[in-house]
């Protein structure tokens, strides 16, 4: 995407269901010169990913499946990551994914979640 100054701007897909965390992360991205589009659910994140051209994705591990869901679930974040990686498996000459996925979570105390996300194609956690 090209911004008003004619420079290319990196655009992130940010999937985070906590409004205060999404706002703080959005402020950080803006301070780094990045744009972003925010999704709150697995369903919305997948729809936006299929519609848009993003440079990278930042995914919360524990999100809601859809707008009707009462509680966020780790499985929703894991599933969204797998869906994104299936759509964007391409790698560059240095063997890095063209579309980087950065996973995050306040529930990363359980190392099995971290390992699972990295095995499913997250580029960092």
Protein architecture, described:
There is one protein chain. This protein is α/β, with parallel strands linked by helices and 125 residues long. Helices cover 37% and strands 16% of the residues. A four-stranded parallel sheet has the order 2-1-3-4, with helices on both faces. Helix 1 links the parallel strand 1 and strand 2. Helix 2 packs parallel to helix 3. The longest helix has 14 residues. The N terminus is likely disordered.
- The spatial strand order of the largest sheet comes to 2-1-3-4
Structural class by helix and strand composition: alpha/beta
Residue fraction in strands = 15-25%
The major beta sheet can be summarized as:
4 strands, parallel
List the helices and strands and how they pair.
Layout: E1 11-15, H1 19-31, E2 35-39, H2 42-51, E3 56-60, H3 74-87, E4 100-104, H4 111-119
Parallel strand pairs: 1-2, 1-3, 3-4
Helix pairs in contact: 2-3
List keywords for this structure.
single chain; 125 residues; alpha/beta; four-stranded parallel sheet; 16% strand; globular; disordered N terminus
């Amino acid at each position: 995407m090209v911004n008003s100054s004619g420079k290319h701007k990196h655009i992130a897909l940010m999937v985070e269901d906590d409004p205060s965390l999404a706002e703080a992360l959005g402020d950080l991205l803006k301070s780094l010169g990045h744009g972003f589009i925010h999704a709150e659910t697995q369903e919305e994140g997948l729809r936006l990913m299929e519609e848009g051209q993003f440079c990278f994705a930042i995914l919360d591990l524990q999100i809601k499946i859809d707008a009707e869901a009462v509680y966020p679930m780790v499985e929703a974040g894991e599933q969204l990551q797998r869906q994104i990686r299936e759509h964007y498996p391409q790698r560059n000459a240095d063997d890095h994914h063209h579309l980087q996925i950065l996973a995050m979570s306040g529930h990363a105390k359980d190392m099995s979640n971290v390992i699972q996300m990295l095995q499913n194609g997250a580029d960092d956690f």
